[in-house]
Inverse folding.
């Protein structure tokens, strides 16, 4: 037995229906809303542009991080490899970097 959302066509049809319904509701609400007074339209356009810019940045960064392949973090070198070891005679030995 398969779930109804296993089919990409069903998901597409449901998303299309939901977007159409949201557009219809937005149109009805827009017709009921009051008309902007003088100066309010400019303020609204500024806020709307800033909102769309922020939305574009969020979507862009989300797409970038999801498209990048998963990488394992670099293993941290142990404290023995970081500090300069001292050999028996007291002369320092150059440590090898393991990056």
């Amino acid at each position: 037995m398969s779930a109804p959302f296993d089919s990409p066509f069903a998901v597409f049809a449901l998303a299309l229906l939901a977007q159409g319904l949201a557009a219809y509701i937005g149109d009805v609400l827009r017709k009921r809303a009051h008309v902007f007074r003088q100066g309010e339209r400019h303020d609204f356009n500024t806020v709307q542009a800033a909102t769309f810019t922020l939305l574009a940045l969020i979507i862009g960064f989300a797409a970038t991080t999801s498209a990048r392949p998963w990488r394992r973090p670099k293993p941290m070198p142990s404290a023995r490899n970081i500090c300069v070891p001292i050999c028996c005679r007291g002369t320092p030995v150059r440590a090898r970097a393991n990056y």
The two ends are 50 Å apart (CA to CA). The chain has a mean pLDDT of 77.
